[in-house]
Specification:
Elements: E1 4-10, E2 13-20, E3 22-27, E4 30-35, E5 41-45, E6 48-54, E7 57-71, E8 74-84, H1 90-110, H2 113-137
Parallel strand pairs: 1-8
Antiparallel strand pairs: 1-2, 3-4, 3-6, 5-7, 6-7, 7-8
Helix pairs in contact: 1-2
Length: 138
């Protein structure tokens, strides 16, 4: 089977650089999949789970915000952060979810837009971490 080269890069450096069979990512317009020899393509990435398959093995990565580009049989993701599902601290993610939910409740009662936006982003990251960790266990 033909493969496509996958690069996942964060501000702290590369996270993945490998030839893979299939990449599935959380685009702002919806989840999308990319195989070898895909047409050129650009997308904004939202917080969620990026998965990639190689030799019948699937790996899961929690990514938060960024961009992707498909060109010349290569897909590159420039994201704010990326964590492998099997490396996620589930207890920490659960605590982060609880804190974000409390902040959202407080922001609603106080009508603080900045705190609300930060709490919503934190909640999305926590939920994405929990989902990615769960997928990695399967």
């Amino acid at each position: 089977m033909a493969q496509i080269h996958l690069e996942v890069v964060t501000p702290t450096g590369p996270v993945v650089s490998d030839d893979v069979d299939l990449v599935t990512a959380p685009g702002v317009g919806g989840e999308f999949g990319v195989l070898a020899n895909h047409a050129p393509f650009l997308s904004t990435i939202k917080t969620g789970t990026l998965s990639f398959k190689k030799d019948k093995n699937t790996k899961y990565l929690m990514v938060s915000g960024g961009f992707s580009e498909v060109s010349n049989n290569k897909i590159t993701f420039l994201v704010e952060s990326a964590e492998f599902g099997h490396e996620i601290d589930v207890d920490r993610a659960l605590r982060a979810r609880e804190r974000a939910e409390k902040r959202l409740a407080q922001a609603q009662s106080q009508s603080e837009k900045i705190n609300r936006a930060r709490a919503e982003a934190a909640l999305k990251r926590a939920l994405a971490r929990l989902r990615t960790a769960e997928l990695a266990k399967q």
